[in-house]
Design brief:
With 147 residues, the chain is mainly alpha-helical. It has a domain of 98 residues: Lysozyme. Helix content is 56%, strand content 11%. It has seven helices and five strands; from the N terminus they run H-E-E-E-H-H-H-H-H-E-E-H. A hairpin with a 5-residue loop joins strand 1 and strand 2. The protein is globular. The protein starts with a helix and ends with a helix.
Amino acid sequence: MHISLKGLALIKKYEGFKPEAYYCPAGYLSIGYGHRLDTSQKHSLITMSDAHKFLVFDLSYAALVIDKYVKVSLKQGQYDALCSLVYNWGSAGFSKSQGLKYLNQSNYSQAAEEFFSRKQGVVNIKGVFCQGLYNRRQAELELWNEN
């Protein structure tokens, strides 16, 4: 399975395009659509076209993580939502999550609650609620529930 154009558009919308290197709210040096850099690249610039290429490359890693850990079938919207979640959250949190356990038990609704809800979802940065992350999780939940 591959991320759809709709899933890609969601990620681009919530990441936003930034042509200059910046520190994201979690403290990572990033550029473009959230591509991580190392500190030696802190004066970097990028075009929108190159940022798109980095995003597609980075999402190929997210796809590998999903393929490795998800043992049940997914609809396209669910896959897109997970691509966005894994890209934003990282593989370590996803691979050890209660949401993944529920998902692999075919409990799709409880998995969605774990991933996307305000109470249990991935909506905090360093332990503090983030409205922007919650908005993103709600958009991912809409994708999840499609089809």
